[in-house]
UniProtKB/TrEMBL annotation:
It is a single-pass type II membrane protein. The chain crosses the membrane at residues 6-28. Keywords: Glycoprotein, Glycosyltransferase, Membrane, Transferase, Transmembrane, Transmembrane helix. GO terms for molecular function: glycosyltransferase activity. This is Glycosyl transferase, family 14. The keyword Membrane applies. It holds the Pfam family Branch. InterPro entries: BC10-like, Glyco_trans_14. One of its GO terms (cellular component) is membrane. It comes from the Eukaryota. It is found in: Membrane.
Length: 369
C-alpha cells in the first residue's frame, strides 16, 4: 500500500509551526495600536526616566517663586505653556498661527513673550508627524514615549509635558493641555485676560494674585463606581477612597503651583498606574488629575473646563466630530456659551477638512470677541 505523499509535508508543517511562531514573535515587531484593547503597562525604564525628569523640574524651581505673584511690581507678565498631546498631524496649525498672530513673513508672534508651545508626539505613530508653519516647529517637540488609550501612559505624557515646560522657562505660570483636534473659540488676548482675571484681589496699592486652575471635577456620575473599580474591586485603597474619587475632562489649564504638585506627586500615581482589567471603564487621564486636585487643593480650581465637547452622539468613547457642512458663525457662538462664569475657549473635535471654512471665518467670527 503506497503512503500518501502529503503525510510527510503535513507532519513537517506541524513541526515547523512553533519555529515559525518563535521567529515572528521575536524578529518581526508589529507595532501595538494606540487603541489596543489591552495596552501594555508602563515599563520600569520609562518610569525611572520620568522620575528623573520630574525631580530635575522640581529642583530647578526656587521656593521663592512660589510666593504670591505681584504683577504691579514687575514688568514681566506670566506666560502660558500650551501643551499638545497628539498622535496625528497638526492640521489646524494655520488657525493656531492666527490665534497667536504670527506674521506670515517673519514668523514672529505678536504675543511671543506671553506663550510657549510644547508637543508630545507619540513615537509609535506612523507616518512621522509633520510640523506645519512657524508655531509647530521641531524645537517645540519634547522627548516623548508611546501612549495608549485606556492606560496611565496618557497621564505620564501629560506630566512629562508639564515637567518639560517647567524646565524650559521659569516664566511659564499656566499649563494649558489641548488637542490637535481642538479649535479656538476666542482670541489669544481674550483667553489670556480671562485666566489672569480669575482670583485677583486688591490689597491696598499692591495686587496679590492667587490664580485658579480650570479643570473639570465631578463627584457624581452614573459610571463613577465602575470607573473607580476599573482596576479591580478595592484596588485603589487605601490611597484613594471611593468618596475621594473624581472624574472630569482630559483637557485643562493648570496653574504653576498645581503643575508642580502634579509632577511631585507619587502616592496616588502608584494606584492610577495599575493597568485596568475593565477597559470599557478605564479613562485614567480623566480621573487622576481631578482626584489629585480635589484631595490636595479643593479651593484652588474652578471645577469646570474651558474646552467644549459634544457628547450627544459619542461613538466608542469619542465625542461628536464636526464636519464642514456643520460649520457656521452660529455654531461658533453657540459653542462659546457656558453655564459657568467664563466662556468656553476651545472646542473639539473637528475633522481636518474643517480647516478651510474655519480660516475663512477666523478674523470676522472666531477671533472677533
Amino acid at each position: 500500500m503506497t503512503k500518501s505523499p502529503w503525510i510527510p509535508i503535513f507532519l513537517l508543517l506541524i513541526i515547523s509551526l512553533p519555529l515559525i511562531f518563535f521567529i515572528t514573535s521575536h524578529f518581526i515587531k508589529l507595532p501595538l495600536s494606540p487603541y489596543s484593547s489591552s495596552p501594555p503597562p508602563i515599563s520600569l525604564s520609562d518610569e525611572l526616566d520620568d522620575l528623573a525628569l520630574f525631580n530635575r523640574a522640581v529642583n530647578s524651581f526656587h521656593p521663592t517663586h512660589l510666593a504670591k505673584l505681584r504683577i504691579a511690581s514687575t514688568n514681566k507678565k506670566p506666560k502660558i505653556a500650551f501643551l499638545f498631546l497628539t498622535n496625528t498631524q497638526f492640521h489646524f496649525a494655520p488657525l493656531w498661527e492666527v490665534f497667536f498672530k504670527v506674521d506670515n513673513v517673519s514668523g514672529v508672534s505678536v504675543y511671543k513673550d506671553l506663550f510657549n508651545v510644547y508637543v508630545h508626539a507619540d513615537p509609535n505613530v506612523r507616518p512621522e508627524i509633520k510640523a506645519q508653519g512657524f508655531v509647530f516647529t521641531k524645537d517645540r517637540f519634547i522627548p516623548a514615549k508611546a501612549t495608549y488609550r485606556g492606560s496611565a501612559s496618557l497621564i505620564a505624557a501629560e506630566r512629562r509635558l508639564i515637567a518639560n515646560a517647567i524646565l524650559d522657562d521659569q516664566e511659564n505660570m499656566f499649563f494649558s493641555l489641548v488637542s490637535p483636534h481642538c479649535v479656538l473659540l476666542h482670541s489669544f488676548k481674550y483667553f489670556y485676560d480671562t485666566i489672569l482675571q480669575v482670583g485677583k484681589h486688591q490689597f491696598g496699592e499692591m495686587m496679590s494674585v492667587k490664580f485658579k486652575s480650570f479643570i473639570e471635577v465631578i463627584d457624581e456620575d452614573v459610571n463613577l463606581w465602575d470607573r473607580y473599580n476599573a482596576r479591580g474591586k478595592n484596588v485603589m485603597l487605601p490611597e484613594v477612597k471611593f468618596e475621594d474619587f473624581r472624574v472630569g475632562s482630559q483637557f485643562f489649564t493648570l496653574t504653576r503651583n498645581h503643575g508642580l504638585l502634579v509632577i511631585r506627586e507619587r502616592r496616588l500615581w502608584k494606584k492610577f498606574r495599575v493597568p485596568c482589567v475593565r477597559q470599557q471603564s478605564c479613562y485614567p487621564e480623566e480621573h487622576y488629575f481631578p482626584t489629585l486636585l480635589s484631595m490636595q487643593d479643593p479651593e484652588g480650581y474652578s471645577g469646570y473646563t474651558l474646552t467644549r465637547v459634544n457628547w450627544t452622539d459619542s461613538v466608542d468613547g469619542h465625542p461628536h466630530t464636526y464636519h464642514p457642512n456643520e460649520l457656521s458663525k452660529e455654531l461658533i457662538y453657540s459653542l462659546r456659551k457656558s453655564e459657568f462664569k467664563e466662556d468656553y475657549m476651545f472646542a473639539r473635535k473637528f475633522s481636518p477638512d474643517c480647516l478651510g471654512p474655519l480660516m475663512d471665518m477666523a478674523d470676522d467670527v472666531i477671533f472677533k470677541d
